[in-house]
Structures are given as structure tokens and as C-alpha cells.
């Protein structure tokens, strides 16, 4: 009997120890599970933070790549400008020798002045056999009214292109491009156009589209002519116009500090300076390098001038008349000296709404693209040969 009691006691003690061991193991397992859960949460958080850090790094690297490309383009532009300045300095040094430190004979000075004047009067070398001039305006067609009071519209003047380019305003950076002139006329506002955003704002209304390039005027501390390729959407060249003390070229369009024009000969710049403040000046530009090939001071006054254009090397300036809604071409300057104001026929524009803020000649169509108080107008021209005058 006593032995049985001992056995029962031992069995109970063993059971208690076994239960205590099980309880201990359960507590340890729960603690391990808690640790594993904590590690899982921390690992998940670390992985999320690592992904966010990776995304930030990728974004920063993309930003750095863009800034690197911008810096490279700026450096290329600076290099181009430095090269142009060096060429201009070489030109000035070649054509303007150092002043002598001794007295020079008055007769010799007169000979040098005469030589300089003869060079300024040198015959312009024509690039084409064009000898047309305006005889009269045959017809006027108002297409529509879109945009603000001042602007410019045109086609690519170098080819039979169907695209229509709308430069709305005088200080913007987005061109509205229509696939055809039919799309332009039936569009509600600019709804059927594609936007072409330039890297900088244009100034005034003196811009052209020529051989798939937009040539526009940008004004900061200096007057800049920018050449923008519409095919790859990039600036291919830019140049500071090498004339100081600019003034608005037209008395009635003060926003236009320079007016670019295209004719059968290529690219022209119409401008004015304080040195010749009362009259308009003309320059022939190289379409590739934007270098100035030749410059002329005309006898066309700025006062009451509203716009101008070039045909076959002849500058035509339109002026506002005293009659409401009427303007006419009353000053002509031919770089070859074949046409004078006295010989040129008077060209009157039909009655219109306000004042022309731009007149752009298209040599392929022999049309003038006019912007008149927000109206887009086409003028059909009748031409004649200069020698027929």
C-alpha cells in the first residue's frame, strides 16, 4: 500500500514537470513568433524604404541627365557665339586697321573715306534671276478671325507646304500648327491645331517659316535671331544681331523690334537703330549660319509704318493713310537700284478692319499673308517685271 502511494506521488510529480516543460516551450514559441513577426514587419518596411530610395535616385539621375544635356547645349551655344565673335573681331581688324600714331595727310584720309563709301555701295550679288515687282493687288480674301489683335500667320515659304503656322500675340512661345488651310478655316478657334512649343518666347510679329525651320526674334539684353528645326524640335542655331541701340522698326507696331522676311533670294532682316532712327534699315542674312551678308540704310521712314515685306530683293513698306481702314505701300527700296519710289506703282490695300501687324510674302504662291486686328487675310498679287517700268 505504501509503495502504491509512492508510485502515485512520483507519477503526479512527473506529470507536473511535463506540464511545466510544455508551458515553457509554448512561451518560448510565442516569443519566437513575436520576434519573427517583428522581423517581418521591419524587413517589409526596409524593403519599402529601399524601393522609395531607388525611385528617388532614378528620378534624380534623370534630372541630372537633363541638366547635363542642357548644360552641354548651352556650352555648344556659347562656343558658337565665341566663334562668331572671333570671326567678327577678325573682320573688324581686317577692315579697320590700327590708328596711326603720326599725322596723316588730309588727302589720304579723303581717299580712305571715298573707298569705304564705294564698298558700302557695292552691287548686291543676286542668288536668283527673279526680277518681279508688285503691279497691284488683285484680290483680298478674309479667311477667319482667331487670336488676338496682333499676331502673324504663314506657311513654309520655301515649298508647297500645306501646313499653316499661327503665331498668336507678340510675346508667346507656342505656335499653333494646322495640317491644311482647310483645317484652319473650319476649326473652332485652335481646336484642330497641334501645339509647337518653342524653347523661348518670340518678340513682336517678325517671324518666318523657311525650309522646315522657324526663324524667330527673341529679345533680352540683346536682339537674338533663333533658328528652330520643326522636324526634330530643337534649336539648330542662334545669333545676336550685330547692331546696337535698336528701336522698334515700325511706328505703328512698337512690339516688333525686328521683322524677318523671306523672298526668292532667301532670308532678310528689317530693323531700325537710333543712329538712323527716322528710317528703316535692311540686312541680308545667311539662312544656315545666320551671318549678316550685307546691310543697307533705306530712305523709308518709320513714322506711320505698320508692316513690310520683301519681293525679289525689293523692300515694300506699308503705311497707314489718313483714310480710315486704308493703307498703301508708299515706300520702296530695291537693293539692286532697279526700282525707285518715283518709278514704283502705288499699291493700295483694300478697306480693312484695323492695322496690319504683319505682312508675310509667300514666293511659291505670290500671296501676302496678313494679320489685321485678329483677322487672317490673303492678298493675291499681280506682278510685273522691274524692267517694264
Short descriptors:
single chain; 389 residues; alpha+beta; Lipocalin; 2 domains; 4-stranded antiparallel beta sheet; 3 helices; 30% helix; elongated; Olfactomedin-like_domain; glycoprotein
The neighbouring-strand order within the major sheet is: 1-20-19-18
CATH topology of the largest domain: Lipocalin
Based on DSSP secondary structure assignment, what is the total number of beta strands? 20
For the record, give the distance between the C-alpha atoms at the N and C termini, rounded to a whole number: 153 Å
CATH class of the largest domain: Mainly Beta
Low-confidence stretches: 94-105, 112-120
Which radius of gyration do the C-alpha atoms yield? 38 Å
Count of folded domains = 2
- The CATH architecture category of the largest domain equals Beta Barrel
Give helix and strand order, one letter per element, not per position.
Answer: HHEEEEHEEEEEEEEEEEEEEEE
Q: What structural class should be given to the helix and strand makeup?
A: alpha+beta
Report the sheet-strand fraction: 25-35%
Largest sheet: 4 strands, antiparallel
Number of helices: 3
**Which term fits the overall shape?**
elongated
Provide the helix percentage. Answer: 25-40%
Average pLDDT reading: 83
Amino acid at each position: 500500500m505504501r509503495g502504491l502511494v509512492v508510485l502515485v506521488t512520483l507519477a503526479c510529480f512527473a506529470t507536473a514537470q511535463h506540464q511545466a516543460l510544455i508551458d515553457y516551450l509554448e512561451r518560448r514559441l510565442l516569443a519566437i513568433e513575436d520576434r519573427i513577426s517583428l522581423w517581418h514587419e521591419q524587413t517589409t518596411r526596409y524593403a519599402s524604404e529601399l524601393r522609395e530610395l531607388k525611385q528617388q535616385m532614378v528620378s534624380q539621375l534623370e534630372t541630372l541627365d537633363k541638366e547635363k544635356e542642357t548644360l552641354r547645349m548651352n556650352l555648344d551655344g556659347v562656343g558658337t557665339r565665341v566663334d562668331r565673335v572671333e570671326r567678327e573681331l577678325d573682320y573688324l581688324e581686317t577692315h579697320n586697321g590700327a590708328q596711326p600714331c603720326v599725322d596723316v595727310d588730309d588727302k589720304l584720309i579723303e581717299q580712305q573715306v571715298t573707298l569705304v563709301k564705294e564698298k558700302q555701295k557695292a552691287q548686291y550679288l543676286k542668288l536668283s534671276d527673279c526680277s518681279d515687282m508688285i503691279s497691284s493687288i488683285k484680290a483680298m480674301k478674309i479667311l477667319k478671325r482667331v487670336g488676338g489683335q496682333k499676331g502673324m500667320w504663314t506657311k513654309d515659304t520655301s515649298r508647297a507646304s500645306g501646313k499653316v503656322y499661327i503665331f498668336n500675340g507678340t510675346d508667346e512661345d507656342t505656335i499653333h500648327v494646322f495640317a491644311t488651310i482647310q483645317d484652319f478655316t473650319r476649326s473652332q478657334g485652335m481646336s484642330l491645331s497641334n501645339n509647337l512649343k518653342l524653347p523661348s518666347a518670340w518678340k513682336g510679329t517678325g517671324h518666318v517659316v523657311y525650309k522646315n525651320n522657324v526663324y524667330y526674334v527673341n529679345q533680352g539684353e540683346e536682339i537674338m535671331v533663333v533658328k528652330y528645326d520643326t522636324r526634330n524640335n530643337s534649336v539648330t542655331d542662334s545669333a545676336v544681331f550685330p547692331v546696337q541701340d535698336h528701336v522698334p522698326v515700325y511706328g505703328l507696331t512698337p512690339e516688333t523690334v525686328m521683322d524677318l522676311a523671306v523672298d526668292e533670294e532667301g532670308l532678310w532682316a528689317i530693323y531700325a537703330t537710333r543712329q538712323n532712327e527716322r528710317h528703316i534699315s535692311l540686312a541680308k542674312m545667311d539662312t544656315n549660319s545666320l551671318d549678316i551678308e550685307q546691310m543697307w540704310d533705306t530712305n523709308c521712314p518709320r513714322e506711320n509704318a505698320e508692316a513690310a515685306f520683301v519681293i525679289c530683293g525689293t523692300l515694300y513698306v506699308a503705311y497707314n493713310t489718313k483714310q480710315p481702314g486704308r493703307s498703301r505701300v508708299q515706300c520702296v527700296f530695291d537693293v539692286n537700284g532697279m526700282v525707285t519710289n518715283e518709278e514704283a506703282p502705288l499699291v493700295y490695300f483694300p478697306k480693312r478692319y484695323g492695322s496690319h501687324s504683319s505682312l508675310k510674302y509667300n514666293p511659291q504662291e505670290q500671296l501676302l499673308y496678313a494679320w489685321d486686328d485678329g483677322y487672317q487675310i490673303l492678298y493675291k498679287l499681280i506682278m510685273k517685271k522691274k524692267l517694264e517700268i
